[in-house]
Amino acid sequence: MRRISRTPLSKGILTLVLGWGLVGGLGVLISPLEAAPHSNSHSAVENVRVVTVHIENRRFLPHVIHLRVGEQTRLVLKNDDVELHAFVPADLLAQTHVQVSGNGAPQFNGQGFQRVLIPSQGHAELTFSAKHAGSYPFFCDLPGHVMNGTIVVED
Ligand SMILES: [Cu+2]
C-alpha cells in the first residue's frame, strides 16, 4: 500500500523536475537571443565595433557603454518607444567627425555633433572614433524625460 501511495508523489516530483528543466533549458536558449541586441559585436568586414542601445520606457538599455580610444565605433540607437527621444552625448563627440545615418534628425553646432532626434520606432547610427579616454554622460534632453547613461572610453 505504501509503494502505491508513493507513486503519484514521485511522479509529481519528476514532473516538477522536468518542468524546471524545461524552463531552465528555454532560459538558456532564449537569453542569448535576448541579450544580442544589447551586446557589443564586432564586424570583421568593416572592422567597426557595433554597439546597439535600445530606448525603451524612457530608458537607455544598456545605460553604460564601454568603448576604446581610437576604435571605429558604430553606435546604433533604436527607439522602441511610442514617443520621440533625443540622444545627446555631451562632450564625447565634440570636435570629432561623426557620420550619421538612419532616420533620425541630427543637429550640429560650432563644436560639431550636438544631438540626434529619433522618432518612435526609428533608429540613428553614429559612426565615429572616440578621441580621449574618460567617462562621458549622455542623455535625452526632451522636456520631462529623465533619461541618461554613461559612455566609458578606455585607453
Ligand atoms: Cu526622451
UniProtKB/TrEMBL annotation:
Pfam families: Cupredoxin_1. CDD domains: Cupredoxin. It comes from Candidatus Nitronereus thalassa. It comes from the Bacteria. This is Cupredoxin domain-containing protein. Keywords: Copper, Metal-binding. Gene3D superfamilies: Cupredoxins - blue copper proteins (2.60.40.420). Residues 41-153 form the EfeO-type cupredoxin-like domain. InterPro entries: Cu-binding_ET (IPR050845), Cupredoxin (IPR008972), EfeO_Cupredoxin (IPR028096).
